[in-house]
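FIELD: query
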Amino acid sequence: MRRIGPVILGIAVFLFFLLCYPFHIHFHEQYQLFLFSFDYFLELAVRPGGIAVWLARFLTQFFYYSWAGAAVIALLLVAVQQVFQKILLSLENKPAWIPLSYLLSVSLWILLLNENYMIAAVVSVLITLIAVTLYPVNGTSQRRTLCYFLTLPFLYWIAGGVSILYAVLLVIIKWSLDRDKIRKINLLLHVLAALALAFSYPLLTSCFIQYPLPKLILGIDYYRYYYYPFYFQYVAWAVPVVVLLIYLIFPAGREKRTRLLVSVLGAALTGAVAFAGLYFFTDRDKERAFAYDYHVRIENWQKVLELAGRKAPASDLELSAVNLALAKTGKMGADLFSYPQAGVEGLFPPFRRDFVSPLITSEVFFHLGMVNSAQRYTFDAMEAIPDFQKSARCYKRLAETNLINGHYRVAGLYLKFLRQTLFYAQWAGKTQNFAGNEELIDAHPVWGQTRRFRYRDEMLFSPEGMHSMLGILCSQNRKNLMARDYLFSYLLLARDLESFVAAFDNFSDSLSGPIPVLYQQALALYWVQHNENFEQVPWNISEEIQTQIGKFAASYAQNASSNPAKLLRKEYGNTYWYYVFFTKSPRL
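FIELD: result
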């Protein structure tokens, strides 16, 4: 067990994060900007736990690749188990209880299912356990006391608030070693003095660093949301305390059968906790949302559509990613209503003051040519990151938008920092050559096109007037086919047929081939609302569409007294007509 157990744990953790949670890994990476600079190191090192945070962010940058992130997490959790096992065996030789040493790693694994629980917390726990191994178990009582008093302040500065765990573990170890050698009253005084010292360092630090005392005691950088305590992490801190007490108090048994039974029960308990934790706390919905965001980020449009094909988008953010993919692949006019649309929010989700949702919307703006809106949403998302980090993804996009707008000095500042990273330095170095070179930017397949598509004059952003803003984009450059499709789709989703027909007559000359099916359906609906038949219809509406709308109207009238929405969904659920008559009205 002592040899094969860590291998099983490492492989299980690696495969779980690689196969089940890869996009949580990418989520962590994109919301930090690790810099290879002394200033960055010093900024973190001057506060309690800053060294552990620096080490954790160094490791988190490798989450750029999901397999590397899974490997890092697996190695960290195996290291935690191995060090904790070493602590237990250094006190007493009870290998039967060793399966319980996996409970701490399993607890941290479960906590990492929360995308806001930081790798810094795991690194801090590992550093704390390593510090416990330095405690001279076989030394004199005076030597152990001296070691505690000298080590604790350094550990607090390196690992932060989790050093309280160090104090508690050493108090238990000291009690175990000295309970038969000194009087109980003296042992109690030693315990109280040790705990008082552990709490005195945060109190002293609060006089010099402007952090709330509870954060200095319990840790600053273990959870992304600075102002909201994550109490579940303290359950993980309690696990090694409970395991250590069980290990020291309860015998493992002398008979081989008894020891085997203890080991089996310990392994079963650890396995049950792991299974229950993964089952109840794995958030598959968030993983899907992060998958949409990641594939939009790398512009893998086919993957976005494959995700939506397996399961319908569950939010306006996911739907906006799908609609963007439809526009980028030229399928918006044919497949828009193949997915459950619920209004214009599926094109442009309403602005939320968080650090996640504005990024997908900013991607939509960027690809449309609304450069300033993309820049604002990206900047707002980065500034809303709860733990006040900067974002490599946001820095990259902000460098691009400033290059397109000709703000080369500002773009250079973002590129300067990106050149100090590991995985973005090469891109930043190449991009730096574009600064100030108008010809290079104009020839770039993305930046040059976006520069030609962007607004020529300054204008105010208005979510309520989005159709007018899209109309201006189309008018300024009729080659902006994505803006045309978004304008048509926006008006269709808003049920504004009059404006759709006017826009279609104005910009349909850029359509190649037959009119897309959904546009034909909308034109047919508009026509039958104003005319008795399709004679003299000015658009090329196929006979099939003319026949279908007649059948739809007849079926609607025939089933009006029952449940027409349910009865017509199978045959007409992906048509514009079904959306108009049976889908909840959009919020404009």
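FIELD: remark
The chain has 31 helices and no strands.
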